[in-house]
Design brief:
The longest helix has 15 residues, at 118-132. It contains ten helices and 26 strands. It has two domains: 4-215, PmbA/TldD superfamily (PmbA/TldD fold), CATH 3.30.2290; 225-457, no CATH class. It is of the alpha+beta class and 458 residues long. The protein is 21% helix and 41% strand. Helix 3 (118-132) runs parallel beside helix 4.
Length: 458
């Protein structure tokens, strides 16, 4: 099988033979491993290797796309992408200018998960599973581990040649308990870019998770209504990613007249303490990179700055259509898909308040942590917290059943009345959009306090 470096050289030469407004190629080699436990038993171990690529051509506002896994000859795929672009071309269209780049980014073989023995990975998961099953009243459990290594090459007809490589680790654990009439669960999700050590030494957290699933069986359920709610960094990060971050992806905005009015730059969305950022430049996070999948340098983009909407996330095409600068947010999960506008590491910028200061004057409220899942529809959202406690007279009180938070994202942003100083980034999730999932991202926040938040019991 040829190396993608050899195919890249051939592709660069082939591009010169064709007259097209713009052509690009992405070539990729990858390996992944997956280990799953269900209940007490190891359910599956899999290993997947792939090599392939894609060609995109742009002609007068029309895109052509061809993906392939037979990399010996890219010529027919170039021709196919160009022909597709011609068929859907329009009277006009353009891409935002990006200077060509030649760069090689190699982290070295020490990041490759294949250098970590499978026996070591299995031993660690065996230890975590044994801890879970020491817990009484457990009904079942699920452990899912995955790692991957990817090397990619990006070439375009403007002269860019970019080589990047990365690894990725994700571990998710769930404990489900029952007393015969009730079922409750607790979970942990952790992830890392290039660092297996981040999923080591979780034994005490796994023990706490398993025991919490049992404790929830006896926890009371709150009466639904409006409360002052404090979100931990995990749940606040999920909120800003799911409820607001997707609304900032400009492919969604420019196609929707209603959203263009709602997401108009300069509009006030919160207090001066509220700033929301998306940045792929933070070192060592799962959403980090130097160049996106269009060869555009990554950037730090303020979406909200001191309560005002000031930016959004762009590909080269959406930036040109909206008369704004590209932000380096065009991403794809692998060579089988074209890149689309996606988030990277999205977070609420920290302020000065301590956690104790945030809860000090709350007579009766709710402290919501972690998350199970949620849905968004335009500006409306619903999220399920994974863990919740009452706040009484400025103190964390009893454990309660997990709660559901719902509302309008813009109203909720305006109701954020305190932002902590304790930013944390959660890396255990993956983002889905346009059939492409899970894309490595991170999201985070300090603790935040929201007044008049609609809360229901699970």
């Amino acid at each position: 099988m040829p190396h993608i470096e050899d195919i890249a050289s051939h592709t660069t030469r082939e591009f010169k033979k064709y007259k097209s407004e713009y052509i690009e190629a992405r070539l990729e080699q990858s390996r992944s491993n997956n280990i799953t436990y269900r209940g007490r038993k190891l359910e599956s171990i899999s290993k997947i290797s792939s090599i392939g690529g894609n060609i995109r051509s742009y002609i007068k506002g029309g895109w052509g796309f061809a993906s392939f896994n037979k990399v010996e000859d890219v010529t027919p795929h170039i021709e196919q992408a160009i022909e597709q672009a011609r068929l859907v071309s329009k009277k006009e269209g353009k891409l935002a200018y990006v200077a060509p780049v030649t760069d090689t980014l190699s982290s070295g073989t020490d990041i490759d998960p294949k250098n970590i023995p499978l026996a070591k990975k299995k031993q660690l998961l065996d230890e975590y599973n044994e801890i879970i099953w020491r817990t009484p009243k457990l009904q079942t459990s699920v452990i899912g581990y995955s790692d991957s290594y990817k090397k990619s090459l990006f070439i375009n007809s403007s002269g860019s040649f970019i080589r990047q490589e990365r690894s990725d680790y994700v571990l998710r654990l769930t404990a489900i308990a029952t007393n015969g009439s009730e079922v409750q669960q607790a979970n942990i999700s952790v992830g890392s870019r290039d660092n297996f050590d981040q999923i080591l030494n979780l034994h005490s957290r796994v023990d706490e998770m398993a025991n919490r699933s049992v404790e929830l069986l006896e926890a009371p359920q709150i009466k639904g209504g409006e409360y002052t709610v404090v979100l931990d960094p995990v749940l606040a990060g999920v909120f800003v990613h799911e409820a607001f971050g997707h609304l900032s992806e400009s492919d969604f905005v420019y196609e929707n007249e209603n959203m263009r009015q709602i997401m108009k730059l300069g509009k006030k969305f919160g207090s001066k303490d509220l700033s929301v950022i998306d940045s792929a430049l933070i070192p060592d996070l799962r959403g980090s990179y130097k160049y996106d999948d269009e060869g555009v340098p990554a950037s730090k983009t303020y979406l909200i700055n001191e309560g005002v909407l000031v930016g959004r996330l762009h590909s080269r095409e959406t930036a040109a259509k909206m008369g704004e600068k590209p932000t380096g947010n065009s991403r794809t999960i692998n060579y089988r898909y074209p890149p689309i506008v996606r988030m990277t590491n999205t977070y609420i910028e920290p302020r000065k308040a301590t956690f104790n200061e945030i809860i000090a004057d709350i007579r009766e409220g709710i402290y919501a942590k972690n998350w199970y899942g949620g849905t968004t529809s335009m500006e409306m959202f619903t999220f399920s917290a994974g863990e919740a406690y009452m706040i009484r007279n400025g103190k964390i009180a009893e454990l309660i059943r997990p709660v559901v938070l719902s509302g309008n994202v813009f109203t909720t942003l305006n109701n954020i009345e305190a932002i902590g100083n304790d930013l944390e980034m959660n890396q255990g999730g993956g983002c889905g959009k346009g059939g492409q999932m899970p894309l490595p991202v991170a999201n985070g926040s300090p603790h935040i306090r929201i007044r008049s938040c609609l809360v229901g019991g699970v």
